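Supplementary notes for students who missed Thursday's class. We covered one full example, reproduced here. Read the sequence, then the structure, then the short commentary at the end.
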Amino acid sequence: MLRVGIVGCGNIASVLASTMEKMQDEVRIEAVASRSLEKAQEFAGKYGVQKAYGSYGELYRDSDVDLVYVAVPHSHHHAVIMEALEHGKNILSEKAFTVNEAEAREVFRKADEKGCFVGEAIWTRYMPSRFMIREAIDAGKIGRVTSISANLGYKISHKERIQDPRLAGGALLDIGIYPLNFALMAMGDDTITGMAGLCVKGETGVDMSENMTLTFQSGVTASISADAEAVTDRKGWIYGTEGSIEVINVNNPERINIYSADRSPVLRESLEITHEISGYEYEIRSASAAIRAGKKEPDEMPWSETLRVMRLMDTFRKVWGIKLGSELE
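Structure (token representation):
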């Protein structure tokens, strides 16, 4: 039985707790922590958690907690994870994993030193849909992949976490990370040989929207966009010489459609995606299995891949002249 301590009591933490309530044979929420004891107690009461702490340190010192789930804003991930690792805790942290690659590397060095598991909880990496898409490509259902497009947009520009550079705001780290991961998952270990991108900044200097292009050694191009001011169709497309794959909602895949290569494409196959619970169950099970096996990183999102994603986002932000979180100090 995996015993989980949740740090943070926001929306993500609530969805996670609701999910784990339905996984009682596999996992138990052992404790919850917030900087407000009242908020922690309210959360604990709602989800039947026995222990509520008014500081993160109290949770880290709880010997009954096997895994700390980090559900605070990503601007705080590095500090929270590092402190938890000092207490020898295994970690599953929400995306974006940290503000930049340097912070992520420091986390992984500490995890290696302490012998702890650390994983980035970007849920699309763990979902069955990820493997269904990979299987379709590997089976040659669309021939040789030539190009990819993916977008994600929500009207969230009014939120403090998006507007404030001190909270590592902007569209890229919050939502752009999903279509970026979509393209990288589709391409596997293909080497990136080129990249270019443009963004539009808001009044606070963070990116409100962006378009990014990646080219791969195989000759594939990927066009990726994110928008914090408008709702987009959220689709991902993988085009090949013998057809195409359409993924409805790159943030939480709902359906995979496979089309022919005809000038007027014919729908060959349609796969509806359903989750056993909420979609969070897969990352929790992955962490549990990895910890039982004595692994320090999840197979679905190894440290090298988290570092690659962070490095790409760092590079785009450097070109755009955007500094966030600890970079402002």
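Commentary. Residues 205 and 321 are 9 Å apart (CA to CA). The chain is about 35% helix and 25% strand. If anything here is unclear, bring it to office hours.
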